[in-house]
């Protein structure tokens, strides 16, 4: 009784019954007792020449889960998981990882939080193949099709948290002039259009990159997952990590090589006859090389692979006679140093472009990625290439505390 009004509070047993019902509807029984500190997939136990990149991947997973779902914030004067804010602002999460990366456990941790907070979620199985089949059947004008429309609305449009697991690429003709599309691609577009007018988020897992899917499933799915509203967890196999490492080494050698090969021996009259476009391209690559070396400070190189690569910045700082002291090149270096000192927007754009181009040098992987995926992978490569390894250790210590909080084994600070 308060202010002459009677209030009936639900008992704990009522909440527990509701939680277990939601648990059974949305999460497979294999994950009912699993927590984030159980996530230790085989992906991280295999040998890798770029071991720091594997460490950075762990950090990225923990950071994204914390920022999308588990961080405790205050909403209307009450403590709440940031998942509620993510839903209210239509933020999505895309998890890409090869076999053995533990995608299912990561998704189940988020669905577990949703079940605890009574957040409506796509009912299991959330398999993408089943989603495709049901969407296809709902596009029929038969009685069965009308009934399936209600199922699709209840499972995929109505819930606040829309979950699709194990989405995969079937876009085998993505480079063809006539791209094949899924037979119900228009129906998927229509479904997503209805969701965009509602509050809620998407949680999608896949073993493939978004760029490999193209518009096979329609125009909206990959586009939505590539917007700024979508956070990404991108896990790569040790073999993929090594391919990226080797591509970065070759890219750096190529950029340094442009500077070495720049012709300074011709006289002024002859230089006028040199292809101006070629000169502009060379200058652009020399400038990119400076930003590249700042982005990727120390790429691991095995002794058996190649001798150490002298950097462009070292050549300038030591005043090596091997540098062609063309006025335009000196101007580029001077401007680069000024931008670096100020850490201005020009410098940040240069770093970002060097990161993207570094990933795109690995054509076998970058051809499967969107620009956003290239940038996200590039950022992890850049962090893994930092010379200051103490910073990585500090981040790992903080991440270990986050895992304990997300697993319910530690109370968040300030609670």
Keywords summarizing the entry:
53% helix; 415 residues; 17 helices; alpha/beta; four-stranded parallel beta sheet; 2 domains
What does this structure look like?
By secondary structure, this protein is an alpha/beta fold. It has 2 domains: 13-235 and 399-406, Rossmann fold (3-Layer(aba) Sandwich), CATH 3.40.50.300; 239-384, no CATH class. The chain is 53% helix and 7% strand. It has helices spanning 12-26, 51-70, 83-88, 103-116, 128-138, 143-157, 185-196, 221-225, 238-261, 268-272, 276-295, 312-318, 327-342, 345-360, 363-366, 371-384, 389-406; strands at 72-75, 78-81, 92-96, 161-167, 201-206, 230-234. Strands 4-5-3-6 form a 4-stranded parallel sheet. Strands 1-2 form a two-stranded antiparallel ribbon. Strand 4 (161-167), helix 7 (185-196) and strand 5 form a beta-alpha-beta unit. Helix 1 (12-26) runs antiparallel to helix 4 (103-116) and helix 14 packs across helix 16 (371-384). It is globular, with a radius of gyration of 26 Å. The model is unreliable at 265-269 (pLDDT under 50).
